[in-house]
Amino acid sequence: MDLDPTPEALQRKLYFLLEQLQDMARELPPKYQMRVPIELLSGLANCLLNDTVFEIVKGLMEIQHVTEKHLFQQRLQVINENTLIVSRLLCAMTNDRLKRMVKVGNRL
Predict the structure, then answer these.
(1) 30-45 b/e with 16+ CB inside 10 Å = b?
(2) Pseudo-torsion of CA 26, 27, 33, 37, nearest 10°?
(3) Global pTM value
C-alpha cells in the first residue's frame, strides 16, 4: 500500500468500497434495505479508508467467525448429548414395558 496515496487513489478506493457496501446491502431482505441509507454506507466506506479501522474490522470478522464456529460445535455437542439421553430413556421405557409384559405372561 502507498504510504501517502494521492487524492485520486483515495477517491477510487472510496468508490470501490461504497460499491461493495451497496452490493452487500442489496443482498439484505427488503425490509432491512430501507434501514441502510446511502449516507450510512458512505460513512462506512469513509471509515474503511483508514487502514487502522479496516484492520480492526478484519480482526472483528475473524473473531466473529471463530465464535460462530465454536457455537456451532457446542450446538452439535448439545444435540448429540440430547439424542443420547432420549435414546437411553426410550430404551429404559422399552425395557420396563417388556418386563411388565413378561410378568403378565407369567401370571397367565
Answers:
(1) eeeeeebeeeebeebb
(2) -50
(3) 0.51
pLDDT for 33-92, tens place per residue?
Answer: 888 999 999 999 998 888 888 788 889 999 999 999 999 999 999 999 999 999 999 999
Closest by CA to 25, choosing from 16, 37, 13, is 37
Residue-range domain boundaries for the chain? 1-49, 67-108
**How many helices (H) and strands (E) in the chain?**
4, 0
Q: Residues in the chain, how many?
A: 108
79 sits in which H/E element: helix 51-107
Helix (H) or strand (E) holding 11: helix 7-26
Grid-cell match 422399552, residue found: 94
Q: Pick the closest to residue 48 from 21, 24, 72 (CA basis).
A: 21
Give the tens place of pLDDT for each residue, 11-35.
999 999 999 999 999 999 998 888 8
